[in-house]
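[Amino acid chain]
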Amino acid sequence: MKADSKSTSRFRWVVAALFFLAYMVAGADRANIGVVVPFSNRNTT
């Protein structure tokens, strides 16, 4: 039973790390879009 608990705990950390990475990528993407949009709008009009 102890080994099962340890693998569950490791799985939770892996899932938490994946959520953290997804959140960071989404935040970086949003920040970059905010920087690029003014330049993009200036070139199209």
About this structure: Helices lie at 2-44. The mean pLDDT is 84. Residues 2-44 form the longest helix (43 residues).
